[in-house]
Amino acid sequence: MVQGVGFRPFIYRTAKLHNLAGLVQNRSDGVRVEVEGPAHRIEAFLSNVLENPPPLARISSVTSGEIACRGEVDFSIIESDALTQADVHISPDIATCGECVKELFDPGDRRYRYPFINCTNCGPRLTIISDVPYDRSRTSMSRFPLCSLCRKEYENPLDRRFHAEPNACPECGPRLQLLQSDGSELPGGDPVTEAVRLLREGMVVAVKGIGGFHLAVNAANGDAVERLRIKKNREEKPFALMVRDIESAGRIALLDDEEKKLLQSPERPILLVRKKPGAVISPAVSPGLTTFGIMLPYTPLHHLLLNKGCEVLVMTSANEIDEPICIGNNEAVKRLSSIADYFLVHNRDILVRCDDSVAVSVMNAPYFFRRSRGYAPAPLLLHRSYPAVLALGAHLKATVCVLRDSHAFLSPHIGDLSTPQARDFLHETVTLMRRIAASEPGVVACDLHPDYYSTRAAFDMEGVELLRVQHHHAHVVSCMADNGITGRVIGLAMDGTGYGEDGTVWGGEFLIADECAFTRAGHIHTFILPGGEAAIREPWRVAMALLREHCGDEAQALASKLALIPDGVDIEFFNEIMRKKVLCPATSSMGRIFDAAAAVLGFRSVVNFEAQAAMEMEAAAESGECGHALSHEVMKGNGAYQLHLAPLIAALAHDRLEGVRIPDLARAFHRTIAEALADVAGRIRIDTGLDRAVLSGGCFQNRILLRDTVECLRKNKFKVFYHRRVPANDGGIALGQAVSAGARKL
Ligand code: ZN
Ligand code: ZN
Ligand code: FE
Questions:
Q1: Mean per-residue pLDDT over the chain, rounded
Q2: How far does the centroid of ligand 2 lie from the alpha carbon of residue 150, in Å?
């Protein structure tokens, strides 16, 4: 990545530094540099380029050779040669760089406390574009003509702001405004100073950021956080926090070096980290969990708000539940006036929505739950070229992907496609990603699920060839593409739900797969979901089904001893449903197994959001000891291995009643699942000779499960692949669909 990142001015400066003549030029295959001068200076120049490239540049290879001297005396940046639109990638939005932060707080600088300071190395990119190629006239900065000082910087190759498209200053650039909840301007002083005061007083302030609005509130103020939680109707989902700096982060969280590095990276994801005991943060921020999601300031406005204000702010994306993040000033006031007391807005429009990315550090590397701001739309480099494909992804955590040559352009997070707003956002994103990838693929990939909005949208597209990719196959292929591997593998796809080839709900799948096709070599032995959808919100139902499967009529007595069934449930009716098998879809879902285990261990019989109980069980397992793995059984039936986990759920119930510590049982449960997965994979290896295991699906967001499974598989001499760049959850489905469809068209 050497275009749009200040690479040519960097070459220019470096050549000048070493007193070399020549030229630099962007080309479709990279950057070409010609330098003329004594050999030792050329060598020094080259090592300088390789050792110290601009922060956002990525050099994949350098080739050099001698050409005849031209007798040049100056060094020049010359116009691009035959550069196609497709070759100039749109950069992701990048956090304010160190140099800009320094200027921001320097009273002598002309941009002192200017909330829109940026340079070639930092600032908004994707979120301000209206079209490609990237140029100020096609961004929301087009309405701010550069003043003479800014223009000088913009035109000077030696300046850090040479061709920084969003370049601005207090003279010529965007401005802040502080609005009251009715949309009228709050009279009085400096908007930042006022907003800081209001936040200190416990007010909810909607803050316009890079890719959308956040709702901000003082994280140390319990009443304020509670108030936001009630107003936002966010049940118990954790809120993200923004902390002043890395020292502040260290005061509220336990951080290792990798975590510190990720928090301070230019991409600035929300990082899930362990809470530090005694941190002065309202418990209402992430109830029931031992982790926080925290991030550092990534815009000048964030720096200004946190520098002298609250040390930690709740910064949750501003939307009604499951709706896309809010971006327009009027839209924000309209949609959020019942939630926010004040609005800190500005007149630089956000043209592309982009939610914060969410990651965690696992085994000393970043592991993504959501790949969005800071990362998208930078293309993922694949190990080979494919025909062009547009993939429309899944239904929850939706993203779309355009495949062109060896690049996969995976979109920012779109979210849950249940609302009309999110559906519009899907279509906008498809248009955007086609432009960014400069491709109008004639092949469109989608899921098998007939009710996914993305599937229906694919069917509605005219003049394209439609290829459907089974959900768990897409998970496995996404992880293969993520790791740059091809050929046949043993794929372990463990998630909540996905539409199976037989029309039933799959979710605990062992696939023998390559990019094009798969066979279902094994799966979790199917069990029933009494009440269908209701069983997702009420895990006790799944627990009852599994207990009954293993213990028969004894299940009822077990359930009452465990206080498994919530008050007010008509148990006769429930039993009737189970006996008659009405409203009882069959599933092989690993997610539901985790729910059932968490219910039996007393975490929750009813959840407010998917995987809530399982997340609490994972948190408890962190402090548990694993005495021994519990039982699982593997049998062969219908040509596939059947992993029976009802005995495991029953064993948890019995051990809990015998007084074994809950954290220890939670720990043993994870270990048992990992060993069971390795057991089934081992049998498939004996049958096939395959020794590569590929782990994907939302259940692998569980870090204990991930680590244990990797360990068990490696102990059995497997080569193990897990996600590196894209999420294991449905956010990665579009990539898997795209690569699978592309491979079929090779
Ligand atoms: Zn900068
Ligand atoms: Zn200016
Ligand atoms: Fe999935």
A1: 94
A2: 4
| CATH level 2 (architecture), domain 523-721 | 2-Layer Sandwich (3.30)
Compute the distance from residue 266 Cα to the ligand 2 centre, in Å: 25
Look up tokens 């004594």; give the residue. Answer: 38
**Which pLDDT band holds residue 666 (cuts at 50, 70, 90)?**
very high
Any idea where the domains of the chain sit in the sequence? Answer: 7-85, 176-346, 374-486+729-744, 523-721
Q: How far apart are alpha carbons 173 and 143 in whole angstroms?
A: 9
- What is the tens place of the pLDDT at every residue in 574-585? 999 988 989 999
DSSP state of 119: B
Mean pLDDT of the region 250-257: 97
pLDDT at 413 exceeding the cut of 80: yes
Q: Are domains 374-486+729-744 and 523-721 of this chain identical in fold?
A: yes
Centre of ligand 1 to C-alpha 117, Å, is 7
Distance 100 CA to ligand 1 centre (A): 4
Give SS3 for 260: helix
Whether the predicted pLDDT of 661 surpasses 90: yes
Question: If you average pLDDT over residues 275-287, what whole number do you get?
Answer: 91
Helix, strand, coil percentages for the chain (3-state, nearest 5): 35, 20, 40
Query: Ligand 3 centroid vs 123 CA: distance in angstroms?
Result: 34
Rounded Cα gap, residues 327 and 334, in angstroms: 11
Pick from 20-34, 243-257, 496-510, 601-615: least confident: 20-34
Mean pLDDT of 723-729: 98
Task: Convert 371-406 to b/e letters by CB count within 10 Å (16 or more is b).
Answer: bbbbbbbbbbebeeebbbbbbbbbbbbbbbbbbbee
**In angstroms, what is the span from residue 57 Cα to ligand 1's centroid?**
14
Taking the CA of 591 as reference, the closest ligand is 3
Q: How far is the CA of 346 from the centre of ligand 2 (A)?
A: 16
By the 8 A CB rule, do 622 and 290 touch? yes
Class of domain 176-346: alpha beta
Please give all residues whose CB falls under 5 A of ion ligand 1, grouped by chain where several chains appear.
97, 100, 119, 121-122
| pTM (two decimals) | 0.94
Query: What pLDDT is stored for residue 26 in this prediction?
Result: 81
82: left (phi over 0), alpha (psi -120 to 50) or beta: left
List the CATH code of the domain at 7-85.
Answer: 3.30.70.100
Among all bound ligands, the one having the nearest atom to the CA of 394 is: 3
CATH of 374-486+729-744, one of 3.90.830.10, 3.30.420.360, 3.10.20.90, 3.40.50.2300: 3.30.420.360
Q: What is the dihedral of CA 631, 636, 642, 646, to 10 degrees?
A: -40
The number of beta carbons lying within 10 Å of the beta carbon of residue 481 is 29
Q: What is the mean pLDDT of residues 443-454?
A: 97
Cα separation, 183 vs 432, in Å, equals 30
The string of pLDDT tens digits covering residues 168-202 is 999 999 999 999 999 999 998 899 999 999 999 99
Report residues near ion ligand 2: CB below 5 Å.
147, 150, 169, 171-172
As a whole-number percent, the residues of the chain with pLDDT over 70 amount to 98
Band the pLDDT of 321: cuts 50, 70, 90. Answer: low
What is the distance in A from the centroid of ligand 1 to the CA of 121?
5
State in Å: Cα 153 to ligand 2 middle. 9
Give residue 347 CA to ligand 3 midpoint distance, Å.
39
Mean pLDDT over 266-286 rounds to 94
